[in-house]
Amino acid sequence: MPTYIVLLGPPGAGKGTQAKVLAEKFNLPHISSGDIFRENIKNGTELGKLANTYISQGELVPDDVTIAMIRERFSRSDCVNGAILDGFPRTPAQADALCEMLKEFDGRVNLVPFITAPVEVLIERLAGRWTCRTCGRVYHERFNPPKQHGICDADGGDLYQREDDKAETVVHRIEVYQKQTAPLIDYYKERGVLAEINGFAPIEEVSAQLMAAMKH
Ligand code: ADP
Ligand code: ADP
Questions:
Q1: Is 50 exposed, middle or buried (0-12, 13-18, 19+ CB in 10 A)?
Q2: Rounded to the nearest 5°, which phi and psi values hold at 207?
Q3: Which atom of ligand 2 is nearest to the CA of 32?
Q4: Active-site annotation, residues
């Protein structure tokens, strides 16, 4: 049976950080909708141009565009055994679409770790987040610094600060999360797959909570 894990939580909760850990541990692809959008923006594709008009404002990219992009990603053969989803779904309509997509693989969403931390912590994390331009791996200037300033430990790629991580946009993104994405907490709770994870703990402790949730 394939294993599909959806990491749910506000911007800055630690989804990307933990997705990398889980993907490595379980040898599953890490599918980050934000990374795919940023890749398209970097390459100047039509999808990238459209997505950027929303991303730069801290708004969600429309459901139809996002769902089509993820559907395309799922058409690749590496997803048949499962995947770690990070940043998708972000709305109930996306969650319904995901459920339909997974039926094609005889799969379903097996577990939804819901990672949270207080708002002040999220803001502090995003303000100090540095992202690798090539692999999307994230660092924090204080909480998780790279070995060498400005350079990714994993692939030597150059680290940058995301435009949408500036303070004004971050506050709006957290509001957007509350309005549009937080309903997914009950959505997945009702389906019996939600696992609450305290994200306000050191990275290794959050990983340990996730590993415990995976065993249930
Ligand atoms: P998300 O994908 O949910 O937006 P990230 O994984 O990108 O979150 O993490 C946001 C920032 O916080 C990054 O700079 C990351 O290094 C840092 N971070 C992630 N988890 C923790 C943690 N448990 N403690 C401290 N900093 C963290
Ligand atoms: P974070 O890691 O801080 O939560 P992401 O990298 O996941 O941020 O997403 C960055 C931006 O990309 C979002 O603010 C939104 O504009 C867009 N985006 C990412 N995933 C989705 C999605 N599933 N639906 C709509 N927009 C999305």
A1: middle
A2: -60, -40
A3: 7
A4: 15, 90, 129, 162, 173
Question: Does 31 reside within a domain?
Answer: yes
Residue 106 C-alpha to ligand 1 middle, in angstroms? 32
Distance 64 CA to ligand 1 centre (A): 28
Distance, CA 87 to ligand 2 centroid (Å)? 6
For residue 59, tell me if it sits in a domain: yes
Total domain count for the chain? 1
Q: What is the pTM of this model?
A: 0.97
pLDDT in tens, 109-151: 999 999 999 999 999 999 999 999 999 999 999 999 999 999 9
Q: Which residue's CA is minimally distant from atom 10 of ligand 1?
A: 12
Task: Say yes or no to pLDDT of 216 above 80.
Answer: no
Is position 160 within any domain?
no
